[in-house]
Design brief:
seven-stranded antiparallel sheet, alpha+beta
Protein backbone atom coordinates (compact mmCIF):
# COMPACT_ATOMS: atom_id res chain seq x y z
CA UNK A 1 0.00 0.00 0.00
CA UNK A 2 1.33 3.44 -0.95
CA UNK A 3 2.22 5.58 2.05
CA UNK A 4 0.09 8.70 2.51
CA UNK A 5 1.78 12.11 2.58
CA UNK A 6 -0.30 13.24 5.58
CA UNK A 7 -1.04 11.05 8.60
CA UNK A 8 -3.54 11.25 11.45
CA UNK A 9 -0.60 12.04 13.73
CA UNK A 10 -0.02 15.22 11.71
CA UNK A 11 -3.58 16.39 12.32
CA UNK A 12 -3.42 15.30 15.97
CA UNK A 13 -0.66 17.85 16.56
CA UNK A 14 -3.39 20.46 16.98
CA UNK A 15 -4.84 18.52 19.92
CA UNK A 16 -1.58 18.64 21.92
CA UNK A 17 -1.94 20.76 25.05
CA UNK A 18 0.40 23.65 25.74
CA UNK A 19 2.30 26.05 23.50
CA UNK A 20 5.75 24.49 23.92
CA UNK A 21 4.61 20.90 23.32
CA UNK A 22 2.46 21.78 20.32
CA UNK A 23 5.20 23.93 18.80
CA UNK A 24 7.74 21.13 19.25
CA UNK A 25 5.40 18.73 17.44
CA UNK A 26 4.78 21.28 14.67
CA UNK A 27 8.49 21.79 14.18
CA UNK A 28 9.31 18.08 14.05
CA UNK A 29 6.25 16.62 12.26
CA UNK A 30 4.60 19.35 10.16
CA UNK A 31 7.18 21.94 9.21
CA UNK A 32 9.49 19.46 7.40
CA UNK A 33 6.51 18.58 5.17
CA UNK A 34 5.78 22.28 4.63
CA UNK A 35 9.41 22.69 3.53
CA UNK A 36 8.91 19.93 0.94
CA UNK A 37 5.68 21.55 -0.25
CA UNK A 38 7.41 24.93 -0.29
CA UNK A 39 10.19 23.77 -2.55
CA UNK A 40 7.85 21.93 -4.91
CA UNK A 41 5.12 24.55 -5.21
CA UNK A 42 7.34 27.64 -5.39
CA UNK A 43 8.83 26.09 -8.53
CA UNK A 44 5.39 25.21 -9.88
CA UNK A 45 3.97 28.69 -9.22
CA UNK A 46 7.04 30.44 -10.61
CA UNK A 47 6.75 28.42 -13.82
CA UNK A 48 3.40 30.07 -14.58
CA UNK A 49 5.12 33.22 -15.83
CA UNK A 50 3.75 35.82 -13.40
CA UNK A 51 7.01 36.24 -11.49
CA UNK A 52 8.96 34.23 -8.96
CA UNK A 53 7.10 32.89 -5.93
CA UNK A 54 8.78 32.28 -2.57
CA UNK A 55 7.63 29.91 0.20
CA UNK A 56 7.00 31.18 3.74
CA UNK A 57 6.54 28.49 6.41
CA UNK A 58 4.51 29.81 9.35
CA UNK A 59 6.74 30.04 12.44
CA UNK A 60 4.14 31.34 14.94
CA UNK A 61 7.02 33.26 16.54
CA UNK A 62 4.88 35.90 18.26
CA UNK A 63 2.89 33.40 20.28
CA UNK A 64 3.66 33.37 23.99
CA UNK A 65 0.63 31.61 25.52
CA UNK A 66 -1.94 30.15 23.14
CA UNK A 67 -0.79 27.33 20.85
CA UNK A 68 -1.69 27.67 17.14
CA UNK A 69 -4.85 25.90 15.97
CA UNK A 70 -3.65 25.75 12.37
CA UNK A 71 -0.43 26.08 10.42
CA UNK A 72 0.60 26.56 6.80
CA UNK A 73 3.14 27.36 4.15
CA UNK A 74 2.32 30.47 2.12
CA UNK A 75 3.48 31.50 -1.36
CA UNK A 76 3.88 35.06 -2.62
CA UNK A 77 6.08 36.90 -5.12
CA UNK A 78 8.19 38.45 -2.34
CA UNK A 79 11.07 37.10 -0.28
CA UNK A 80 10.52 39.10 2.89
CA UNK A 81 6.84 38.57 3.57
CA UNK A 82 3.47 37.63 2.17
CA UNK A 83 0.69 38.99 4.39
CA UNK A 84 0.31 42.31 2.58
CA UNK A 85 0.12 40.52 -0.78
CA UNK A 86 -2.46 38.19 -2.34
CA UNK A 87 -0.99 34.75 -1.67
CA UNK A 88 -1.57 31.02 -1.81
CA UNK A 89 -1.50 28.78 1.27
CA UNK A 90 -1.38 25.05 1.89
CA UNK A 91 -2.00 24.10 5.50
CA UNK A 92 -3.78 22.15 8.19
CA UNK A 93 -6.42 22.58 10.85
CA UNK A 94 -7.07 19.64 13.14
CA UNK A 95 -10.13 18.83 11.02
CA UNK A 96 -8.94 19.38 7.45
CA UNK A 97 -6.31 20.29 4.90
CA UNK A 98 -6.72 23.59 3.06
CA UNK A 99 -5.44 24.84 -0.30
CA UNK A 100 -6.38 28.48 -0.65
CA UNK A 101 -5.88 31.84 -2.28
CA UNK A 102 -6.04 34.56 0.36
CA UNK A 103 -6.38 38.31 0.63
CA UNK A 104 -6.01 39.05 4.34
CA UNK A 105 -6.50 42.19 6.40
CA UNK A 106 -2.91 43.46 6.03
CA UNK A 107 -3.42 43.94 2.28
CA UNK A 108 -3.49 47.68 1.44
CA UNK A 109 -5.48 47.22 -1.80
CA UNK A 110 -8.54 45.41 -0.46
CA UNK A 111 -10.97 47.94 -1.93
CA UNK A 112 -9.42 47.69 -5.40
CA UNK A 113 -9.29 43.89 -5.21
CA UNK A 114 -12.96 43.73 -4.17
CA UNK A 115 -13.91 45.96 -7.08
CA UNK A 116 -11.97 43.91 -9.64
CA UNK A 117 -13.46 40.66 -8.37
CA UNK A 118 -16.99 42.13 -8.30
CA UNK A 119 -16.58 43.02 -11.96
CA UNK A 120 -15.69 39.40 -12.74
CA UNK A 121 -18.22 37.37 -10.76
CA UNK A 122 -18.65 34.94 -13.66
CA UNK A 123 -15.27 33.48 -12.73
CA UNK A 124 -16.79 32.13 -9.53
CA UNK A 125 -19.61 30.36 -11.37
CA UNK A 126 -17.09 28.22 -13.25
CA UNK A 127 -15.21 26.99 -10.18
CA UNK A 128 -15.41 23.31 -9.13
CA UNK A 129 -18.41 22.50 -6.96
CA UNK A 130 -16.27 21.67 -3.91
CA UNK A 131 -14.63 25.13 -3.79
CA UNK A 132 -15.30 27.14 -0.65
CA UNK A 133 -15.04 30.80 0.31
CA UNK A 134 -14.61 32.61 3.63
CA UNK A 135 -14.23 36.11 5.00
CA UNK A 136 -11.82 35.16 7.81
CA UNK A 137 -8.68 33.02 7.47
CA UNK A 138 -8.51 32.66 11.26
CA UNK A 139 -11.64 30.48 11.33
CA UNK A 140 -11.83 26.90 10.01
CA UNK A 141 -15.35 27.23 8.59
CA UNK A 142 -16.13 28.19 4.99
CA UNK A 143 -19.11 28.27 2.63
CA UNK A 144 -19.47 26.44 -0.66
CA UNK A 145 -19.25 28.88 -3.55
CA UNK A 146 -21.94 27.10 -5.57
CA UNK A 147 -24.34 27.23 -2.59
CA UNK A 148 -24.04 30.93 -1.75
CA UNK A 149 -23.90 31.92 -5.44
CA UNK A 150 -22.76 35.25 -6.84
CA UNK A 151 -24.91 37.18 -4.35
CA UNK A 152 -23.11 35.54 -1.44
CA UNK A 153 -19.70 36.13 -3.01
CA UNK A 154 -20.60 39.77 -3.66
CA UNK A 155 -21.60 40.22 -0.02
CA UNK A 156 -18.16 38.99 1.05
CA UNK A 157 -16.52 41.33 -1.46
CA UNK A 158 -18.57 44.29 -0.22
CA UNK A 159 -17.37 43.51 3.27
CA UNK A 160 -13.78 43.16 2.04
CA UNK A 161 -13.97 46.67 0.62
CA UNK A 162 -15.57 48.33 3.64
CA UNK A 163 -14.52 46.48 6.82
CA UNK A 164 -10.94 46.88 8.06
CA UNK A 165 -10.57 43.32 9.38
CA UNK A 166 -12.47 41.65 6.51
CA UNK A 167 -10.68 39.11 4.33
CA UNK A 168 -11.34 37.00 1.26
CA UNK A 169 -10.26 33.36 1.17
CA UNK A 170 -11.05 30.98 -1.69
CA UNK A 171 -10.06 27.38 -2.37
CA UNK A 172 -10.52 23.80 -1.22
CA UNK A 173 -10.93 22.13 2.16
CA UNK A 174 -10.08 18.42 2.25
CA UNK A 175 -11.27 16.42 5.26
CA UNK A 176 -8.55 14.77 7.31
CA UNK A 177 -10.04 11.36 6.43
CA UNK A 178 -9.59 12.03 2.73
CA UNK A 179 -6.26 13.82 3.14
CA UNK A 180 -4.73 10.90 5.00
CA UNK A 181 -5.59 8.61 2.09
CA UNK A 182 -3.64 10.63 -0.49
CA UNK A 183 -0.21 9.48 -1.58
CA UNK A 184 2.44 12.16 -2.09
CA UNK A 185 1.80 12.12 -5.83
CA UNK A 186 -1.98 12.34 -5.38
CA UNK A 187 -1.59 15.16 -2.87
CA UNK A 188 0.62 17.26 -5.14
CA UNK A 189 -1.64 16.57 -8.12
CA UNK A 190 -4.60 17.85 -6.10
CA UNK A 191 -2.71 20.94 -4.97
CA UNK A 192 -1.56 21.76 -8.50
CA UNK A 193 -5.04 21.25 -9.95
CA UNK A 194 -6.50 23.51 -7.25
CA UNK A 195 -3.93 26.22 -7.96
CA UNK A 196 -4.64 25.92 -11.69
CA UNK A 197 -8.30 26.68 -10.96
CA UNK A 198 -7.43 29.53 -8.58
CA UNK A 199 -4.96 31.26 -10.87
CA UNK A 200 -7.52 33.04 -13.10
CA UNK A 201 -8.94 34.59 -9.89
CA UNK A 202 -5.42 35.50 -8.76
CA UNK A 203 -4.82 37.24 -12.08
CA UNK A 204 -7.94 39.35 -11.53
CA UNK A 205 -6.85 40.16 -7.98
CA UNK A 206 -3.45 41.46 -9.12
CA UNK A 207 -5.02 43.33 -12.04
CA UNK A 208 -3.31 41.33 -14.72
Amino acid sequence: MTQAFWTNNDFNVFSIEGLEHRMNALQTKIQPKFEVIGEHLSTYLSSRGTGEFYPHVAKHARRTVNPPNDSWVAFAPAKRGYKALPHFQVGLWGTHLFIILAVIYENPDKKGIAERLSNNLKKFSSLPEDFVVSGDHMKPDALKVNEIGNDGVENLLDRLASVKKAEFVLGRHISRNKATELSEEEFFNLVEETIDRLFPVYDIIIGK
